[in-house]
Amino acid sequence: MKLKSIAAAALAVTTLVSVAACGSASDTNADGQVEIVMWHNSTTGDGKQFWEDAAAAFEEENPNVTIKIEAIQNEDMDGKLQTALQDPDSAPDIFLARGGQKLRDVVEAGQAMDLTDKISDTVKTQMATALDADTIDGKIYGIPQSVLPGGMWYSKDLFAQAGITETPTTWDEFKTVVQKLKDAGITPIAVGGKDAWPAAHWWYWFALRECSAETFEQAQSDKDFSDKCWTRTGDDVQELIDLDAFNEGYLTTPAQQGASSSAGLLANHMAAMELMGGWEPGVVRDLTPDQTDMEDLGYFAFPTIDGGEGDESAIMGGSDGMSVGAWAPDEAVDFLNFVSEKEWQEKYAEAFSTIPASVEAQEVVTNEALKQVLDVYNNASSVSMWLDTVFGQNIGNALNEGVVNMMAGQGTAEDIVKGVEDAAAKG
């Protein structure tokens, strides 16, 4: 263990030395002009425009700075970023920070700047809670932009068509809702199985309900999945599959790209529900025919499980934040502090139709579904990050793949756990 720690430290030092020697995607000219490269994952609509507007406003106040904005498709981001960060010459200076083990891996490789003493007082006070997702061993390595609690998003109109007057709070009630929707000729649930993680989210949430808080936390820290609750989680997913509640061809359906994606099916009333994070209102808005808010979009918390050991008010979510490369100029941090002020946090919330990380800016949230999720978030006993984020890319990919395999009839609940344990054993 000691030798491993020494090796890791040596690797981090080597990385930082090579960064200093080679430079980075950013470039400071002899005349003081600075170019900053930023990667984010909003490729369309108002969200994409937000970052372009923010960069232009910062450049106007800082004439020596040019910010090059690059929008990367969300499903491609992790892989491209992992590759780019190996070469400081091509690595972005500012990049998406998902938190959890994914962020820890970047930090331990010496690729992320310690922002603890660089963030503004605004960030420290107005984003204190959200900063937890970007804090590793007591140091801050990212600045959050939004909080993204998850749950069930649904069409109020389709529920009404099926004669459903109340949203379900228990799994038994949820199954009744599914049957009513099927009886009315309505596809109950949209799933973007092609991208794996939307399908695996069902396993994540069942795990949160089946496992006690202690067991859930232990698995995150020790990668211990010996408790029987992890197998029951897979059994719950199998029961969901047996309900035949998903859209036709869900295993080849993308999550967010186009009107035929799972989000598009909800946006265009081709399916009644989707299990997603707090980004959902903004995503479905951009997939409606006129690209306006889905007026009948509603939200309810993930149902409780009879006999489950998890806290009934615990929820799962995350935060979209931005980290700064260890090689980046100070102006990169200045830009993130700039967009963290209340004015820009309010603009962020409106552009992305989401909940801003700044508590003072949350009053700008008017979307009724987002108000509901904010209420659930504020009253939650705990908020876990998505499990593939918590466990990191290798274990997370194994988990997501295992869930999809089971949904395709090529695996069992036990196979999912074994796949995760095998990935964990490889380190």
TrEMBL record:
Signal peptide range: 1-20
Protein name: ABC transporter, solute-binding protein
Classification via InterPro entries: Bact_solute-bd_prot1, SBP
Entry keyword annotation includes Signal: yes
Keywords recorded for this protein, A-Z: Signal
Organism: Bifidobacterium eulemuris
Keyword Signal assigned: yes
Pfam families membership: SBP_bac_1
Membrane spanning residue stretches: none
SUPFAM superfamilies membership: Periplasmic binding protein-like II
